[in-house]
Design brief:
By secondary structure, this protein is mainly alpha-helical. The protein has helices at residues 2-7, 32-42, 51-69, 82-101, 108-121, 124-137, 143-155, 159-168, 174-186, 190-202, 209-222, 225-238, 244-256, 260-268, 275-287, 291-303, 310-323, 326-334, 345-357, 361-369, 377-390, 393-406, 411-423, 427-439, 470-486, 499-504; strands at 11-13, 16-18, 448-453, 456-461. The protein has a two-stranded antiparallel sheet with strand order 1-2. Strands 3-4 form a two-stranded antiparallel sheet. The chain is globular. The chain starts with a helix and ends with a helix.
């Protein structure tokens, strides 16, 4: 560790310098006194030199050293308060070191809570420092500190580092297994979640309801309905079906996976409901285009004395947007203040999309220009999509320019603009935009979809020629499109590109 600190007197990550544990000021050069203090602090506590401890310690040092040296590959999702977060963490770490110098010591509970706090704030700098502190104190072998580190790295979008910490743990309990499962569930990696779950059960550990909540979240994100049903059976067998958080997770999973009736069955049979329960069902109705049902449930919720929050109104407005209920959407948007809910940019985006889908493009544009909050790229993207749908070139160009100012080089925006020109027959302009994309090396994100058949997820990606059954897929799509045309549903097909064209290219 001494050699590492001599080579790296200050931690560097994406051109940002982080202080060593005892450093009090950031500067290009660190004095000999500062380096001496850093080395002295790192050697305050020396763990026992058993072979397994030394090997584990060296492995964790290599993990941290690799992270700090590969600074070009790490992205830290910090917000505008990142400087405050770093300063606060540095003060806390320095305070911990002073306690060690005074003989008070740093225990497992403190380190676990400190690492968890860094994970909640996505404070990668602080978490790394506490990771180093755990190594020097020997508490890195604690299952609770290890579990906190797994959650920390997962929340900072460094799942590979979370896996390395998990693999190096000398002892694992249900908390550590649940932490790594939760990390993969955030990425919707249901395959890895299931594999880890089987390994956990093979180690004679009994999962808790937090474990199943993470598993259901992974099923929800990947559309793995059959896996979700299997976990539901296990939940009933273990007696977790009476837990409120489990019921909420089940409702969300069934709703997202298209089984809205099963979600409603759980909702109707719940003895206790909280705000999350109501919000989940309302959002499920919105996802399935059941606008009237969502509105009715919202009114029932108000009668029950449950106060709505921002998520509730987002679900109601989304249902109005999908159902084309312009007047109802405007009424509920205006009623937010009456219930003490301040509209956020997502709520304004719903109204813009609602007006745009209904063809009220001038009203939508005026609404954007008069918003009390700054419109983001999503708001302008909604207006651009509506302009493309209804062939309004001028408003579409304005929306595209405004979005490109926020996201320069956004391929999706340029693709939509080219589609807008093609929609109104401006072929030269459409070709010019596509040439611009080609010259800049910009490619639109490939559309993808997936379907679960016999507990197996089948993924389909546009222009992907690796699927051996693409001929059968194309024939099936041709049949479906022909059937939709016979029902006069052609206008409700994909708004961006003709589905048949996308499939024929795969």
């Amino acid at each position: 560790m001494k050699a590492f600190l001599r080579r790296n007197p200050s931690f560097c990550l994406r051109n940002q310098k982080f202080r060593p544990f005892s450093s009090h000021k950031l500067s290009p050069k660190i004095s000999n006194k500062g380096l001496t203090n850093a080395l002295r602090i790192l050697n305050l506590v020396s763990p026992q030199k058993r072979g397994s401890d030394v090997k584990s310690r060296q492995s964790h040092l290599r993990l941290i050293e690799n992270m700090l040296e590969n600074n070009a590959t790490i992205t830290i999702p910090l917000d505008h308060n990142s400087h405050t977060l770093r300063t606060t963490t540095e003060i806390n770490v320095q305070s911990s070191v002073l306690q060690m110098e005074q003989g008070f010591g740093v225990d497992v509970r403190f380190l676990s809570q400190a690492v968890s706090s860094c994970g909640s704030k996505r404070d990668l700098c602080g978490g790394i420092q506490y990771h180093c502190l755990a190594i020097t104190t020997g508490f890195i072998a604690s299952v609770y500190v290890g579990s906190s580190l797994i959650s920390f790295y997962s929340r900072c979008a460094l799942l590979d580092h979370a896996c390395r910490v998990f693999e190096e743990m000398p002892v694992r309990n249900v908390v550590s297994w649940t932490a790594i499962i939760a990390g993969f569930s955030q990425e919707w990696r249901v395959d890895m979640c299931v594999e880890l779950f089987h390994q956990m059960r093979g180690s004679d550990l009994t999962p808790n309801y937090f474990t199943y909540t993470s598993l259901l979240s992974a099923c929800m994100g990947s559309g793995a309905l059959e896996y979700g049903r299997c976990f539901h059976c296990q939940i009933i067998h273990l007696g977790f079906h009476s837990y409120l958080h489990i019921d909420n997770a089940l409702i969300a999973m069934y709703s997202k996976c298209g089984a809205i009736d099963e979600a409603l069955y759980i909702f109707d049979n719940m003895e206790v409901r909280d705000l999350v329960t109501w919000n989940t069902v309302i959002s499920g109705y919105a996802q399935h285009g059941l606008a009237q049902e969502a509105i009715s449930l919202f009114e029932e919720m108000i009668k029950e004395g449950v106060n709505p929050d921002a998520v509730t109104y987002l679900g109601v407005l989304s249902s109005c947007r999908h159902g084309g209920l312009v007047r109802e959407g405007q009424v509920y948007f205006n009623s937010m203040i009456e219930h003490g809910v301040q509209p956020e940019v997502d709520h304004y985006s719903c109204i813009v999309d609602l007006l745009g889908r209904a063809g009220l493009l001038l009203e939508a544009r005026d609404f954007v220009q008069n918003m009390p909050v700054f419109p983001n790229a999503v708001v302008w993207g909604s207006l651009l999509s509506s302009s493309r749908l209804h062939g309004s070139v001028q408003i579409g160009i304005q929306a595209a320019e405004s979005r490109l100012l926020l996201e320069p080089g956004c391929s999706a925006t340029l693709q939509q603009l080219a589609n807008l020109y093609a929609r109104v027959g401006w072929w030269n302009e459409a070709a010019r935009v596509r040439k611009l994309m080609k010259d800049k090396g910009l490619k639109p994100n490939r559309a993808c979809s997936w379907v679960e058949v016999k507990s197996k997820i089948h993924r389909f990606e546009a222009q992907n020629k690796s699927n051996s059954r693409r001929t059968e897929i194309a024939l099936t799509m041709d049949s479906l499109i022909h059937h939709m045309n016979s029902l006069n549903l052609h206008s409700q097909m994909c708004e961006e590109e003709n589905i048949w064209l996308s499939v024929s290219q795969c």
